[in-house]
Design a protein that fits this description.
The complex is a heterodimer of chains A (341) and B (109).
Chain A (H helix, E strand, L loop, with lengths): L4 E4 L6 E2 L8 E2 L3 H10 L3 E7 L2 H10 L6 E7 L3 H12 L6 E5 L2 H10 L4 E4 L19 H4 L1 H14 L6 H7 L2 E7 L5 H10 L3 E2 L8 H10 L1 E9 L2 E12 L3 E9 L8 H15 L4 E7 L5 H9 L3 E2 L8 E7 L10 E5 L4
Parallel strand pairs in A: 1-4, 1-6, 4-5, 6-7, 8-16, 12-13
Antiparallel strand pairs in A: 2-3, 8-10, 9-12, 10-11, 11-12, 13-15, 14-15
Chain B lengths: L5 H5 L7 H13 L22 H15 L10 H4 L2 H24 L2
Classes of the chains: A alpha/beta (341), B mainly alpha (109).
């Protein structure tokens, strides 16, 4: 599995010297390593002992502060800080790599959070060639990922001043465009299939390409693109549906990056409306329990779907919903669906 | 003889209502620190954008830990979790089932 974020220690790892004690110097290959991973869509964050202010000044002076989307520079245990980074970015801790020069910190991380990949800071130049830091395709979304995480934190800071959460969400000007999957979308669709875990109806087992091939043979692919006043998020969700009286959602995946604003409800609402217009009386969704995608089941059940019976041997449940009374999509997402073919 | 501190003894954790514990969690987890609005017991948490599908799971995990029960997947339904009032009712119903099961097993010879 490709990692989504590298979390860095600072003193003796990213730079030589101790920030609180005097000037520091960027270590060999540090800048190139940060740049190379960033260009692949891998995020950078900081979990370091020390004080926020002097470290922030050093990061600016060295010209690398723009790379970091989350920072925890304090005296808390690093596993606590790394959990905070994961929460802030909305990603799971097993998609993180942690770089430190101190064997104790590396060992403590493995002890507390064994799912985090630990990397010794001995040679920064070798880090970009590690297997877990090789995304299969570098898409447009990947290249602008850092910018959209930074926009997201600006969005969070803006949230405090509104009279309600709805008013805040409405002010964001979210637009969701739903359209068929085109051949040129395939790299991004494969990336979504491989990277999403929570809102993924099937889970991920290795290479998603054969699954995509199968889905395309017997169902229609639809994707959604999100934008708001902070920027473009690109393709954030994909679904494969078979229309008909008993319509089926064969596959559903949505980026965890955009969770927390109701966009997944909007996407499913658009899909349901479309399938209803194409003559659907009910919609079925197969949910294969992967241990990580419980929120997918929660999403569909909250939209009115119900399990048709106890789970089968492979842990999958069929969720069914009539298409007569459609759920109301969130008021703050403007949906724009390409015409039905 | 007057017993000192009786009121503290009389005010164990149960005095903090289920509603308050749920609202506090939702406020600290999903609203900005200085939000100028409140979550009312009957606020529709989904329509008001407070909770989404991932947020619901964080909230469910909190309830499972805080109240010591397991919430099965098939119970993740709007009638149970659309508001603080409905979640409180769900938790009370689950707890009373457990208590009556407990008292039955204690009463058994």
């Amino acid at each position: 599995v490709t990692h989504k974020c590298v979390v860095w220690d600072l003193d003796h790892t990213l730079w030589d010297g101790v920030c609180l004690e005097g000037p520091v110097r960027l270590r060999t290959a540090a800048r190139e390593t940060l740049r190379a991973l960033d260009a692949r869509g891998i995020l950078h964050a900081i979990a370091s002992k020390g004080e926020e202010e002097p470290a922030a000044r050093a990061l600016v002076k060295l010209g690398i502060d723009e790379y970091f989307v989350a920072r925890r520079i304090n005296w808390l245990p690093k596993p606590t800080n790394i959990r905070g980074v994961a929460r802030e970015l909305g990603i799971a801790t097993d998609t993180l790599a942690f770089v430190d020069d101190d064997p104790f910190e590396l060992a403590q991380m493995s002890y507390m959070l064994p799912e985090v990949t630990t990397i010794s800071a001995r040679s920064l130049a070798e880090i970009p060639s590690r297997a877990e830091l090789q995304p299969r395709d570098i898409t447009a979304e990947a290249r602008s990922r850092r910018a959209s995480y930074r926009a997201e934190s600006a969005r969070r800071r803006a949230a405090a001043s509104f009279p309600s959460r709805e008013a805040f969400l409405a002010s964001c000007g979210m637009q969701l465009r739903v359209r068929p999957v085109l051949p040129e979308d395939e790299p991004r669709v494969l990336e979504l299939m491989a990277r999403t875990h929570q809102l993924n109806s099937a889970g991920v087992q290795g290479d998603p390409e054969p699954l995509l091939g199968r889905l395309q043979r017997f169902s229609t692919g639809l994707l959604c693109e999100l934008s708001d006043r902070f920027g473009q998020y690109g393709i954030v969700g994909v679904a494969f549906v078979a229309q008909g009286r008993n319509a089926t959602l064969h596959y559903f995946a949505m980026s965890c990056r955009i969770l927390g604003r109701g966009v997944e409800r909007a996407f499913v609402s658009v899909l349901m409306e479309r399938l209803m217009r194409l003559g659907g009386a009910e919609l079925r969704v197969r949910h294969r329990d992967t241990g990580r995608n419980r929120s997918l089941r929660a999403l569909f059940q909250m939209l009115g779907f119900r399990a048709s019976g106890p789970p089968t041997g492979d842990g999958s449940a069929m969720l069914i919903c009539g298409l007569r009374d459609l759920p109301d999509p969130p008021t703050w997402v403007k949906c724009d669906a390409a015409p039905t073919r | 003889v007057k017993l000192a501190g009786t009121s503290a003894v009389d005010a164990p954790d149960q005095q903090v209502s289920i509603e308050t514990r749920l609202t506090d969690f939702l406020r600290t987890s999903f609203l900005p620190a200085r939000a100028s609005f409140e979550i009312e017991p009957d606020t529709d948490l989904f329509a008001s954008g407070v909770v989404d599908s991932a947020g619901l799971l964080a909230w469910v995990a909190f309830m499972e830990t805080e109240f010591g029960l397991t919430i099965p997947d098939e119970d993740l339904l709007p009638e149970h979790f659309v508001s603080v009032a409905s979640a409180s009712a769900y938790l009370r119903a689950r707890q009373s089932v457990r208590h009556s099961a407990l008292s039955r097993s204690e009463a058994a010879p």
